[in-house]
Amino acid sequence: MLRIITQQAEAKNELRRICDRTSHDGIMHKEATVREVLQTVKRQGDKALLHYTEEFDHQRLTPDQLRVSGSELDAAYQQVSKELLDAIQLAAQQIEAFHRQRVPKSWVQFGDDEVVLGKRYTPVDRAGLYVPGGRAAYPSTVLMNAIPAKVAKVPQVVMVTPPGLEQKINPAVLVAAQEAGVSNIYRVGGAQAIAALAYGTETIPKVDVITGPGNIYVTLAKKLIYGTVGIDSLAGPSEVLIIADSHANPVYVAADLLAQAEHDPLAAAILITTDSTLAKNVQAEVKHQLQDHPRRELTEKAIAHYGLIVIVDSLETAAELSNEFAPEHLELEITEPWDLLNQIRHAGAIFLGTSTPEAVGDYIAGPNHTLPTSGAARYASALGVETFMKHSSLIQYSSTALNKMAGAIQILAQAEGLPSHADSVRLRTFGERHSD
Ligand SMILES: NC(=O)c1ccc[n+]([C@@H]2O[C@H](COP(=O)([O-])OP(=O)(O)OC[C@H]3O[C@@H](n4cnc5c(N)ncnc54)[C@H](O)[C@@H]3O)[C@@H](O)[C@H]2O)c1
Ligand SMILES: N[C@H](CO)Cc1c[nH]c[nH+]1
Ligand SMILES: [Zn+2]
């Protein structure tokens, strides 16, 4: 049952609890498991991957099965319908068109005294994509991760994904990977896959950056491994927060809540509304739509633990509560969504108006669906081309410019107790060492 809350203080507490659901005490024992998995893969390589795949995915693999073979990749095309291939290709075009619009560009600026400053963008050498595959297959996530990497011109893009039942990865995932130019695919999921990409094993190459969403184990592994390797963001169990007024359709609102809840028992689905009738209708509609739901058990779990309806007195209050939650997806199902937009400060992706279900963004609109969750939208953003790039600062000084700045540099260096810093400037300008 989706609960309805009317008290602001209670709503704030509940929203905090839901936001923190991936870090509360009950989850901490999972962190211990993940730490052990990371250490064991670091020490034992492929042997550990096979061990954990048997333990967590219940699949017994041989070392040569870790890498998906060319014949399996070819066969995948025979196993997807023409309609599915067309949809994958359409989504790929839309995602590529969106991501090509804002490719970071190197720049230089010429200032006074022949000073040149700038930034030079370069791709990472090797990227590793995590494509989830525990409770659903995600060909859309392949595209959302591989296409920005390709646009960034990353020379080598590899992918990991859970082995699937009977060692068979969903063929749509394999087709999407080929359409998007992934060079190698490895049959391993969970924290062990993240460890393999971060440390490298006999079969899987060590990468420079790991991107892609995943469940709590994957997300904890990314958090713990950061620094050994770059990561995109903490894109964990999905969440949606919908702000709706009396004009919203309860049938659509309920469907949009369930569309995120069905991802994971740890998914979150929240409605904040100014209309108490809508609240009751959505509550009834969620119950109705769950009746024949093919993923009823897990969706009901998410709704029961991390589902919520809050009734508020104004859209301003709704925006304020939403900002505190910082949702992965925010839907504005209100008559004037653009008017409320300037009050929204934190959200991974914002869907405006009643004809924009979040699923449009999951599959086809073009913006990336790999988004920060559990409050990370307060400081992080959607995956993008820039995730696969870094920039080097460019600085060139003439002797005139150096002479002008020499005094200030030496004073700062002395204040920091770093005499050689001061010398490196003084020797070029006056020719005396600090000891002279
Ligand atoms: N935020 C985003 O951008 C975004 C996008 C798409 C999907 N998602 C999320 O991705 C997740 C996909 O989850 P999933 O489970 O379907 O697939 P997944 O691939 O993320 O996780 C499956 C893996 O988890 C590991 N695992 C399962 N139980 C374990 C246990 N008890 N101990 C240790 N490891 C264990 C297994 O090795 C398995 O391969 C969902 O939470 C979904 O909401 C998020
Ligand atoms: N809603 C997910 C991000 O939380 C992305 C997705 C992929 N396929 C379906 N949905
Ligand atoms: Zn989704």
From TrEMBL:
<keyword id="KW-0520">NAD</keyword>
<feature type="binding site">
    <location>
        <position position="260"/>
    </location>
    <ligand>
        <name>substrate</name>
    </ligand>
</feature>
<feature type="binding site">
    <location>
        <position position="329"/>
    </location>
    <ligand>
        <name>substrate</name>
    </ligand>
</feature>
<comment type="function">
    <text>Catalyzes the sequential NAD-dependent oxidations of L-histidinol to L-histidinaldehyde and then to L-histidine.</text>
</comment>
<feature type="binding site">
    <location>
        <position position="215"/>
    </location>
    <ligand>
        <name>NAD(+)</name>
    </ligand>
</feature>
<dbReference type="GO" id="GO:0004399">
    <property type="term" value="F:histidinol dehydrogenase activity"/>
</dbReference>
<dbReference type="GO" id="GO:0000105">
    <property type="term" value="P:L-histidine biosynthetic process"/>
</dbReference>
<keyword id="KW-0368">Histidine biosynthesis</keyword>
<feature type="binding site">
    <location>
        <position position="263"/>
    </location>
    <ligand>
        <name>substrate</name>
    </ligand>
</feature>
<feature type="binding site">
    <location>
        <position position="238"/>
    </location>
    <ligand>
        <name>substrate</name>
    </ligand>
</feature>
<keyword id="KW-0028">Amino-acid biosynthesis</keyword>
<dbReference type="GO" id="GO:0008270">
    <property type="term" value="F:zinc ion binding"/>
</dbReference>
<feature type="binding site">
    <location>
        <position position="416"/>
    </location>
    <ligand>
        <name>substrate</name>
    </ligand>
</feature>
<feature type="binding site">
    <location>
        <position position="362"/>
    </location>
    <ligand>
        <name>substrate</name>
    </ligand>
</feature>
<keyword id="KW-0560">Oxidoreductase</keyword>
<dbReference type="InterPro" id="IPR001692">
    <property type="entry name" value="Histidinol_DH_CS"/>
</dbReference>
<feature type="binding site">
    <location>
        <position position="192"/>
    </location>
    <ligand>
        <name>NAD(+)</name>
    </ligand>
</feature>
<dbReference type="GO" id="GO:0005829">
    <property type="term" value="C:cytosol"/>
</dbReference>
<feature type="binding site">
    <location>
        <position position="130"/>
    </location>
    <ligand>
        <name>NAD(+)</name>
    </ligand>
</feature>
<feature type="binding site">
    <location>
        <position position="263"/>
    </location>
    <ligand>
        <name>Zn(2+)</name>
    </ligand>
</feature>
<dbReference type="InterPro" id="IPR012131">
    <property type="entry name" value="Hstdl_DH"/>
</dbReference>
<comment type="pathway">
    <text>Amino-acid biosynthesis; L-histidine biosynthesis; L-histidine from 5-phospho-alpha-D-ribose 1-diphosphate: step 9/9.</text>
</comment>
<dbReference type="Pfam" id="PF00815">
    <property type="entry name" value="Histidinol_dh"/>
</dbReference>
<dbReference type="InterPro" id="IPR016161">
    <property type="entry name" value="Ald_DH/histidinol_DH"/>
</dbReference>
<dbReference type="InterPro" id="IPR022695">
    <property type="entry name" value="Histidinol_DH_monofunct"/>
</dbReference>
<feature type="binding site">
    <location>
        <position position="421"/>
    </location>
    <ligand>
        <name>substrate</name>
    </ligand>
</feature>
<protein>
    <recommendedName>
        <fullName>Histidinol dehydrogenase</fullName>
        <ecNumber>1.1.1.23</ecNumber>
    </recommendedName>
</protein>
<keyword id="KW-0862">Zinc</keyword>
<feature type="binding site">
    <location>
        <position position="260"/>
    </location>
    <ligand>
        <name>Zn(2+)</name>
    </ligand>
</feature>
<feature type="binding site">
    <location>
        <position position="421"/>
    </location>
    <ligand>
        <name>Zn(2+)</name>
    </ligand>
</feature>
<feature type="active site" description="Proton acceptor">
    <location>
        <position position="328"/>
    </location>
</feature>
<keyword id="KW-0479">Metal-binding</keyword>
<feature type="binding site">
    <location>
        <position position="362"/>
    </location>
    <ligand>
        <name>Zn(2+)</name>
    </ligand>
</feature>
<comment type="similarity">
    <text>Belongs to the histidinol dehydrogenase family.</text>
</comment>
<feature type="active site" description="Proton acceptor">
    <location>
        <position position="329"/>
    </location>
</feature>
<dbReference type="GO" id="GO:0051287">
    <property type="term" value="F:NAD binding"/>
</dbReference>
